[in-house]
Specification:
Blueprint: E1 8-11, E2 14-17, H1 32-40, H2 48-83, H3 87-115, H4 117-125, H5 134-137, H6 141-149, H7 154-162, H8 171-174, H9 178-186, H10 191-199, H11 208-211, H12 215-224, H13 228-236, H14 252-260, H15 265-273, H16 289-297, H17 302-310, H18 320-323, H19 327-336, H20 340-348, H21 364-381
Length: about 375
């Protein structure tokens, strides 16, 4: 079945649909052989890439030709209807319309299923110079969903979900919003693929949880873990400088989700007391008073809490109080101390340059909180 058999002629570089009757198309058999004949004029092409290039050109030209032909035929309908009104003319017009519409549908919906399975697979899984795929570059949930919907089979979808870039990032790590994360996880065909997506780490040692942009993403990722063992692994994995997901949390809400999703007290305590390669714990990296409070409220006993409060990092000998960003954060840290003794140690501790927290006060209000606390410690001693 060649193009001419379908009533198409190529004249001056353009495709033209002949005025065949509807009955001429009732016995068309759609199969792989007939498709190859339509696409390549009956010629055998062995080179897959050459065939794919021809298919792309063919599909684009045919889509444009069909759209143009339908428009032309509708215009002719109007002209013929004005000039004649006989049953014969009406039958001819119906045949023309039927041909145009059925063939357009054939080209646009049926044929691509036979010809583009390799093309879709190639385009959806191909990478740029950095090893980045279209799925990794998707900016919205709609784009992510669209790309996955074009996967011709489960194998292609699995490849798309587990492919990694040159820096070993997968699509899940590149998700920019919670809905994207949800779509990617839902697309996983099995638990093995899901675990690979969740626990995979890039060249910087980061997993998808560490790349989460907000608490919604973190919650979706942790709830998707098939069991507590995988969930614990995700929470305890560390990046290239030894930081875990809790240390990289962007705010108090994200910190709370991470701690709430810990399967047991031991995992939670390990997350809180863990230090990176610079000797910093999560409390020292807290960005504000709210985040500090969430972390301190989750510590199970006074001894552990006090140890975190007076802990110094290895680079500069700084403590959480020295690194506090505001008066409110300093106040939260001081109020968390289990005793006056611990509070005094916090206030008098010096870094490697011999300076205390008071020397690093960023505002007069913060300096006042520290001075008042130090004065109160002395009064209680007396």
């Amino acid at each position: 079945m060649k193009i001419m058999n379908l009533g198409i002629q190529k004249l001056n570089g353009n495709y033209k649909i002949n005025q065949y009757k509807k009955s001429d198309f009732q016995n068309i058999k759609i199969n792989k052989l007939s498709y190859d004949s339509v696409c390549f004029g009956g010629n055998s092409i062995n080179n897959d890439e050459q065939k794919q290039d021809k298919l792309t050109s063919f599909e684009c030209s045919m889509k444009d030709a069909i759209d143009k032909e339908i428009s032309t035929i509708k215009d002719k309908n109007i002209q013929l209807t004005k000039s004649k009104s006989t049953d014969e003319t009406k039958e001819m017009l119906d045949s023309i319309n039927s041909l145009a519409e059925s063939f357009a549908e054939y080209i646009k919906t049926v044929l691509p299923k036979y010809c583009t399975i390799k093309l879709y697979k190639k385009f959806l899984t191909q990478t740029n110079d950095y090893g980045v795929t279209p799925l990794m570059l998707a900016k919205t949930a709609e784009q992510t969903n669209l790309l996955l919907s074009y996967a011709p089979d489960e194998e292609t979808r699995k490849i798309m979900l587990t492919q990694t870039s040159n820096s070993n990032k997968n699509a899940l790590m590149c998700a920019k919003e919670a809905e994207q994360t949800k779509i990617l996880l839902k697309a996983s065909p099995d638990d093995l693929t899901l675990v690979r997506m969740l626990s995979c780490t890039d060249n910087f040692g980061k997993n998808a949880l560490m790349y989460a942009q907000n608490f919604e993403q973190s919650k979706i990722l942790l709830e998707a873990a098939p069991d507590d063992k995988i969930r614990t692994k995700m929470l305890n994995q560390t990046d290239g400088v030894g930081a875990n997901a809790l240390m990289l949390a962007k705010d108090d809400k994200q910190s709370k989700v991470l701690l709430d999703c810990a399967p047991d007290d031991k995992t939670r305590d390990d997350m809180l007391t863990h230090t990176n390669y610079f000797g910093e714990n999560a409390l020292m990296l807290a960005k504000d008073d709210r985040q500090s409070k969430v972390l301190l409220d989750c510590i199970s006993d006074d001894e552990t809490r006090d140890e975190m409060l007076i802990h110094k990092n290895s680079n500069y000998g700084e403590t959480a109080l020295i690194l506090a960003q505001s008066a409110e954060q300093s106040e939260v840290l001081l109020n968390a101390a289990s005793s006056n003794k611990t509070r005094k140690i916090m206030l008098t501790q010096k870094d490697n340059t011999g300076k205390t927290a008071l020397s690093y006060a960023k505002t007069p209000e913060q300096a006042k909180v520290l001075k008042d606390a130090l004065s109160k410690c002395k009064d209680e001693e007396e």
